[in-house]
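Researcher: I need the complex structure. Ligand is guanosine-5'-triphosphate. Inputs:
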Amino acid sequence: MDFRKVQFLLSAHAMGQLPEPIYPDIAFAGRSNVGKSSLINRLVERTNLVKTSSRPGKTQSLNYFLVDNGLYLVDLPGYGFAQVSKQTRKSWQGLISRYVEIRSTLVCMVVIIDLRHELKSLDRDLIDWLRYLHKPFLPVYTKADKLSRNDQQKNAALLDASLTLTPDERIIFSSRTGQGLDQLRTRITALATSFQGGVDPGGFFTDPI
Ligand code: GTP
Ligand code: MG
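Model: Output:
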């Protein structure tokens, strides 16, 4: 999968605006300002395909990107940003939860967590909920460049313990240095490939030779 072959597709503000589910979705969720959009930019090797900002709450809709004519990357609005009205917060949460429940082609939710901090309750809520729904997810601990290698391992072990994860179930990452990028690409490519195998109706409609 060539991640550099990427194009912006659309911004969805409601479920009716999602693109045809002909490719698998990989969605990126996490607290506001954690680095979701930066991670996607790094993944596709663009500096500003996805708008990033030091101001939390930059991404406010479901933004779809098409990769290599075979995969949708979905940048989700961040959660946990206090400086918005209750109403706005509710509508964001509603949008994300409806999306996860409805979108059958969602093959993985990448849950991005700041490696510098202990687990926040909204991150735990999201992961508990994904587990409850049996939706595959991949935790990515980001902003690793802000810590020494030693502290990276120490903090990752604490987050692992909070989430009952083993080290091979998550990735330590940095959008700034590209640490963890190969691992992330390998995982996403495998997910996209397994989806193609799973939905191909060719064998059903064509007679065996
Ligand atoms: P919202 O769309 O507001 O929810 O934010 P987001 O999660 O998309 O975060 P975004 O990618 O816009 O990044 C937020 C800030 O964190 C920006 O100032 C980025 O430059 C910075 N940032 C993101 N990832 C990293 C990283 O891996 N390392 C460092 N040092 N800074 C990062
Ligand atoms: Mg964003």
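Model: Summary of the prediction. Helices lie at 36-43, 86-102, 121-133, 149-163, 181-199, 202-205.
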